[in-house]
UniProtKB/TrEMBL annotation:
Record keywords: Hydrolase, Membrane, Protease, Transmembrane, Transmembrane helix
Membrane-spanning parts: 61-82
UniProt domain PDZ: residue ranges: 373-423
A Gene Ontology BP annotation from the UniProt entry: proteolysis
Domain of life, source organism: Bacteria
Region entry Disordered, spans: 1-57, 274-345
Biased composition (Low complexity): 1-46, 286-301
PROSITE patterns: PDZ (PS50106), TRYPSIN_SER (PS00135)
UniProt xrefs under InterPro entries: Chloro_Bact_Ser_Proteases (IPR051201), PDZ (IPR001478), PDZ_6 (IPR041489), PDZ_sf (IPR036034), Peptidase_S1_PA (IPR009003), Peptidase_S1C (IPR001940), TRYPSIN_SER (IPR033116)
The name this protein goes by in its record: Trypsin-like peptidase domain-containing protein
Organism: Kribbella sp. HUAS MG21
C-alpha cells in the first residue's frame, strides 16, 4: 500500500475586500464567477522533497463538466509513489516498467505554478504552466489567466517567483503564452509528438492540483480517447466553451492542473491539461427500520468514485452510507452503499496543436482567434440581457474614459469601431481585436432613447 503524502495546507479564505482596480459606479448586478485561491509558497527549497502523490479529493473537477482553476480550473497545486484511485490502471501499471513517479520527477523542473489576481472580481486563481524557453516563455491555458489584472509565476526548477506578462492568447482554443520578467537559465520541458499518441498509452498528468502551490503532484492513467470533443464550463456551470480534438485520459486531472502537462512514459509532454469531468456520487439509499424506537438509518457516499460502502450507526440510530439502513432499538444503525460512481475523465489539448498556436503568438501574428499583447477595455461591464439588441452597460469605472464620455449603467452600446453591436458577444469579439491606447468610435443609446456618439480611448484591462 502506498503511503499518503503530506496533508494539503489550509487555504486562506478570501472574503469581501476592497477592489484591487478602479472603483465602479454600480449598475445592475450580472452573474458572479468563482475562482480558485492563490497558490501557497514553497515549503521547501527550490527543488523540494520528492514529489508527493495526489490524494483523492471529493470535489468537482474541471471540464466536460467544468473548466478552469484556475479554478478554476477548472480551474486548474511532485518522487512520489502512485495513489490508487477510481478509473486508474494500477494493475496494468504494476505489470510494466512504467514508473509514474520517475516520469513526473523528470518533467517537474520544467513547470511553473501560475497565480493570477483577478482585480475586478476580488478573487484569485491558480493553475500550471509549461516552460518553453530558458528565458521564460511559458505555455498555459487561457482560462487560467482570464480576468487577471496581475500574474506571478513560481518556477518549480529554481524556486524563484517572477512577475509575468501576457504575450498573447487564443481564447477559442484555450491557449496562452506568458513571458517571465528577468528570467534566464530556466529548465524547459521535453516536448513529444502528439500525432504518435495511441489508445492505451500510459500517461501521467502533472500539475498544481487544487491550486495549493509548491511541488507539483501527479496522477497516472492511460489514454482512453482521441479526437474527443467536449463542452466545458467553469465550476459554477457558466462560461461554456466548446473544445475539440482532445486527448482523453482516465488520469485524475484536477482543478489547478489546467495548463500543466500530460506526459508519456518517456517523460515527453504530449498534451496540455485543460479539463476534467466530475466523478459520480453514489445514490442515497432509502432508510428502513427494524425497531419502532429507531428513527432512521440513512447516508450519503462522498463525492468520489465509489462512496463509502458502509456507514456506522450513531445514536439515535442514524447509519451513514448509501443504500438501505437498518435501525436497532438501542439506537445503533448501519447503511450499505449502493452508489458505484463513475470514474472521471481528463482532457488535454494535443501538444502539436498547442505549439502551433504558441508559435503564432510568439511570432506576434494576430488573427480572428489569436490576440497579441495586453487586453483593452472600455471601462464598463456588460450585462446579459435577453431580447435586447446591443450590449447593455452594467457598471462604469468612475473617472474612466467611458465615464467621462457620459456612459451610464443601463445604456445600450450599438456600435463599436465602426461595426454594429447586436450582442455582448459581438462587442467582446470586436474589443478583442483592439489594444490599450487605441481610439475607437462608440455609439450608444441612453435609457431615454437618445443616441450618442463619441471617440473613446481604450484602457488596459484584465485578460479577456
Amino acid at each position: 500500500m502506498n503511503q499518503q503524502g503530506p496533508q494539503d495546507p489550509q487555504m486562506p479564505q478570501y472574503g469581501p475586500q476592497q477592489p484591487y482596480g478602479p472603483q465602479y459606479r454600480q449598475g445592475p448586478q450580472g452573474p458572479q464567477y468563482g475562482h480558485g485561491p492563490q497558490g501557497q509558497p514553497f515549503a521547501y527549497g527550490p527543488y523540494g522533497p520528492p514529489p508527493v502523490p495526489r490524494k483523492k479529493r471529493g470535489r468537482r473537477l474541471l471540464g466536460a463538466g467544468a473548466l478552469g482553476l484556475a479554478t478554476a480550473l477548472v480551474a486548474g497545486s511532485v518522487a512520489w509513489g502512485i495513489d490508487q484511485r477510481a478509473g486508474g490502471n494500477s494493475s496494468q501499471l504494476a505489470q510494466t516498467a512504467f514508473d509514474p513517479a520517475a516520469v513526473a520527477a523528470e518533467v517537474s523542473p520544467g513547470l511553473v505554478d501560475v497565480n493570477a489576481v483577478l482585480g475586478y472580481e476580488n478573487a484569485r486563481a491558480a493553475g500550471t504552466g509549461i516552460v518553453l524557453t530558458s528565458d521564460g516563455e511559458v505555455l498555459t491555458n487561457h482560462h487560467v489567466i482570464e480576468g487577471a489584472t496581475s500574474i506571478t509565476v513560481r518556477n518549480v526548477g529554481n524556486g524563484k517567483t517572477y512577475s509575468a506578462s501576457v504575450v498573447g492568447y487564443d481564447e477559442d482554443h484555450d491557449i496562452a503564452v506568458l513571458k517571465l520578467k528577468d528570467a534566464s537559465g530556466l529548465e524547459t520541458a521535453k516536448l513529444g509528438d502528439s500525432d504518435k499518441v495511441k489508445l492505451g498509452d500510459q500517461v501521467v498528468g502533472v500539475g498544481n492540483a487544487g491550486g495549493d502551490g509548491g511541488e507539483p503532484s501527479y496522477a497516472a492513467g492511460e489514454v482512453t480517447g482521441l479526437n474527443e470533443s467536449i463542452t466545458a464550463t467553469d465550476e459554477n456551470g457558466q462560461d461554456p466553451e466548446n473544445l475539440t480534438n482532445l486527448i482523453e485520459t482516465d488520469a485524475d486531472i484536477q482543478p489547478g492542473d489546467s495548463g500543466g502537462p500530460l506526459v508519456n512514459a518517456d517523460g515527453e509532454v504530449i498534451g496540455v491539461d485543460v479539463a476534467g469531468s466530475t466523478a459520480g456520487n453514489g445514490n442515497q439509499g432509502a432508510p428502513t427500520q427494524s425497531a419502532a424506537t429507531t428513527p432512521t438509518a440513512w447516508g450519503d457516499g462522498p463525492n468520489d468514485g465509489t462512496g463509502f460502502p458502509f456507514g456506522n450507526g450513531t445514536p439515535p440510530g442514524n447509519g451513514y452510507g448509501n443504500g438501505q439502513g437498518n435501525g436497532q432499538g438501542n439506537g445503533q444503525g448501519s447503511g450499505q452503499s449502493q452508489g458505484t460512481g463513475v470514474p472521471g475523465e481528463g482532457y488535454a489539448i494535443p501538444i502539436n496543436q498547442a505549439l502551433d498556436i504558441a508559435e503564432q503568438i510568439q511570432d506576434g501574428k494576430a488573427s480572428d482567434t489569436v490576440h497579441i499583447g495586453d487586453s483593452a477595455m472600455l471601462g464598463v461591464s456588460i450585462l446579459t440581457s435577453p431580447g435586447t439588441t446591443g450590449a447593455v452597460v452594467g457598471d462604469v469605472i468612475t473617472d474612466g474614459h467611458a465615464d467621462e464620455a457620459g456612459l451610464e449603467p443601463g445604456d445600450v452600446i450599438t456600435s463599436f469601431a465602426g461595426k454594429q453591436v447586436d450582442s455582448p458577444d459581438t462587442l467582446a469579439e470586436l474589443l478583442n481585436k483592439q489594444h490599450p491606447g487605441d481610439k475607437v468610435d462608440l455609439t450608444w443609446t441612453d435609457q431615454s432613447g437618445q443616441s450618442h456618439k463619441t471617440t473613446i480611448e481604450l484602457i488596459k484591462g484584465p485578460v479577456r
